[in-house]
Amino acid sequence: MNILFFGPNGSGKGTQGTILKDKYTLPHIESGAIFRENISKGTELGARAKEYIDRGELVPDEITIPMILDRLKQSDCQSGWLLDGFPRNKTQAIKLGESLKEADMAIDIVVEIILDCEIAKNRIMGRRLCVNDNNNPNNIYINAIKPDGDRCRVCGGELKVRADDQDEAAINKRHAIYYDAEDGTLASAYYFKDLATMEGSIKYIILDGQPGVKEVSDELVSKL
Length: 224
Hints:
Blueprint: E1 2-6, H1 13-24, E2 28-30, H2 31-41, H3 44-54, H4 61-72, E3 81-84, H5 90-102, E4 109-114, H6 117-125, E5 129-130, E6 159-160, H7 168-179, H8 185-198, E7 203-208, H9 213-223
C-alpha cells in the first residue's frame, strides 16, 4: 500500500500519518528528512543538494526525485510507504509519477485532508507545548484539547509556545503555496485526483480535517 499524503500545515496531516505508520507498519517518509539524511551521510545527491541549499536556492527536481526514489527502494518500503511533503506543484507531480513508473512502482492511494485556511492557521498559532511532555495535546483553539488556562490539560505542567508557530507571515506564506490550485501544492494533488477519475488506478480519499483526531483517523481507516 503506497500512499501519498496532502494537507495544509495545521490540518493534522503529520498526526494522521503517524497513526497510519503505526497501524499498518508503513515507513512515514518526509521529503525534508530525506534531504537531511542524504546531506548528513555525504551522499553524492546530498552533496549536490547542499550546494543549492547553501546558496539559498531550491533544490531542482533532478536531484530531489532521485533522492526520494532511492528512499522508496529501501528494504523497509517493500511492503508499502507513506510519502509526505512532496510533490509541491503539478510539474513535480508529473515527474514523480513518471519516475515511479520507470522504477516499476506506483501510487495506490492519495489522501487529501481539507481544512479552511483560517482554521488551519489558528490551529498552528494555538498550539501549546507542555514542558513535561511535548506529546500532550494542548491547543487554545480546539475545544477538545483546550488547556486549563496556562497549564497542560493532561498533567498540569507549564506550557510553552514555539516561536515559529507565532510567525503569522511565515504561516501565510506556506499556506499560500499549499492552497494555490494553479501552481502550488493543491495543483499537484488535483493532478492525481484527475488521474484517479480518468484511469481508476489510484484511489483518491478526501477527508474533512475539522473533527477531532480520532474522528478523522476513523474515517481515514474506513476509506482505505
